[in-house]
Amino acid sequence: MMSALPVVIAGAGPAGCLSALYLARQNIPVILLEKHQQLPVDLRASTFHPPSLEMLDSLGIAQAMIAQGLKVQRYQYRDRKNGDVAEFDMNLIADETQFPFRLQLEQYEMTRLAAKELQNYPCAQLLFGHEVVDFEQHQDSVSVKVQTSDGEKILNSCYLLGCDGASSKVRKVAGIGYEGFTYDEKFLVVSTPFPFEQVFDNLSYVNYISDPDEWCVLLRTEKIWRVLWPTDPAETNLDKYLTDDFIQARLQHLHAKAGDYQIGHRTLYNVHQRVAEHYVKGRVILAGDAAHINNPLGGMGMNGGLHDAFNLAEKLTAILKQGADAGALLAQYQRQRKDLAVQFVQQHTIQNKQLMETKDPQLQAKRQQWFMETAADPVKAKAFIMERAMFSSLRESLQQA
Ligand SMILES: Cc1cc2nc3c(=O)[nH]c(=O)nc-3n(C[C@H](O)[C@H](O)[C@H](O)COP(=O)(O)OP(=O)(O)OC[C@H]3O[C@@H](n4cnc5c(N)ncnc54)[C@H](O)[C@@H]3O)c2cc1C
Asked: What's the CA-to-centroid distance between 80 and ligand 1, angstroms?
């Protein structure tokens, strides 16, 4: 039987927005709380994988995202030293999905569309300037303490979803550990409108470029090119990475040209590999970065968070509308999503980084050869694309009782 209390969601990032929209479409009362006065606009995720697009399509916003974004049908692993390019063509998975491409679109465009769509549902509220600061669990409810510009308020909810990102207050108040590690080095992300596609041969819009001296990721969003480089873990003067001189030198090293590059954004990110000890504690449930975080190589962070949110909202719908067994379904949510985060996402992203950064030329050559051989064999290439698109692991995890 439906609870009279709403589901309260902390955080209007991709995970919070998706779960709110799913529940609203089921006519389940939901309050989405965002601590900022508007949806955050930052340069983070820009790749939506096919399974995420399928989920977003079932919620009615994928077509608008596709209309705004850049469809990327092929992506490349490039060897900067010898010029070899291994190219994966996502048309190989056209028999598996109606979305055989990666959609390049800033994550804030997805949250904007979801927030706009939420306005069509009277059972949903999105409250800005509402920061979750504490909560208390009771037998059948959770009282959520929220800080607003008008002072503190208490909101009573049937479930509290912690979709409040890597530093999750919900996770901290719940006393749930966030096990793993933080890398010593940071990642520098810079954007520029310079048309790299006009100076590199056959450049795709998503490129992983290896080089024992300086690897990087070069990708295009719907608006701009973006370059990601690692920084030196031993460097103590982190400010230098954000200076014009440093960034111009890195861009000139990527492609030497006359005159300076026009630089858009520049951000230095910490890089973590962590998974929460539990995803569920009573009526408090974590999803997205609040539950797991990984390095961005491969674009699995936000996509994994969207998959959590979809899985969780589906289960909450069964619990709240059909009276399904909450304990059993939430335990299944934790098994399906946490196991996948630990066994697939963490392992793959750690491995991706190790391979990109190897200083050993032989290992580097072997890695590129493996990519070249895999890309050239349609059966192997399809399996690779299915894995990197997170389809294989997602399908496997859904088999888990
Ligand atoms: C450089 C970089 C590139 C990336 N590229 C990709 C990519 O291509 N593909 C990919 O899948 N992932 C990528 N990621 C990871 C991705 O950005 C995150 O996984 C994603 O943003 C997580 O979404 P989320 O909704 O869980 O949390 P967040 O996006 O962090 O959203 C959390 C929200 O909660 C709000 N909030 C926080 N605390 C509170 C509180 N107490 N009360 C109320 N609101 C609160 C915040 O303001 C925010 O709006 C990248 C990350 C980085 C750093």
From this structure: 31
Would you state the pLDDT for residue 1?
A: 58
For residue range 178-229, what is the model confidence (pLDDT) as tens digits? 999 999 999 999 999 999 999 999 999 999 998 888 899 999 998 899 999 9
pTM of the model: 0.96
How many angstroms is it from 255 CA to the middle of ligand 1?
Answer: 31
Chain segment 33-56, per-residue pLDDT in tens: 999 999 999 888 999 999 999 999
Query: Domain residue spans in the chain?
Result: 7-72+105-181+273-356
For ligand 1, atom 20, the nearest C-alpha belongs to 302
Tokens at residue 215, please?
Answer: 């690897």
CATH topology classification for 7-72+105-181+273-356: FAD/NAD(P)-binding domain (3.50.50)
Task: Give the distance (Å) from ligand 1 centre to CA of residue 372.
Answer: 33
Question: pLDDT of 98-108, one tens digit each?
Answer: 999 999 999 99
What whole-number distance in Å separates Cα of residue 287 and Cα of residue 336? 12
Q: Rounded distance, CA 315 to CA 22, Å?
A: 11
Which of 130, 154, 125, 153 lies closest to 141 in space, CA to CA?
Answer: 154
CA of 166, closest atom in ligand 1: 30
User: For ligand 1, what atom is nearest to the CA of residue 17?
Assistant: 25
Cα–Cα dist 241/220, whole Å: 21
* Beta-sheet pairing, 102-104 with 70-72: antiparallel
Q: Is 79 in the pocket of ligand 1 (CB under 6 A)?
A: no
**How large is the average pLDDT for residues 355-361?**
84
> Of the given ranges (132-136, 159-163, 394-398), which has the lowest mean pLDDT?
394-398
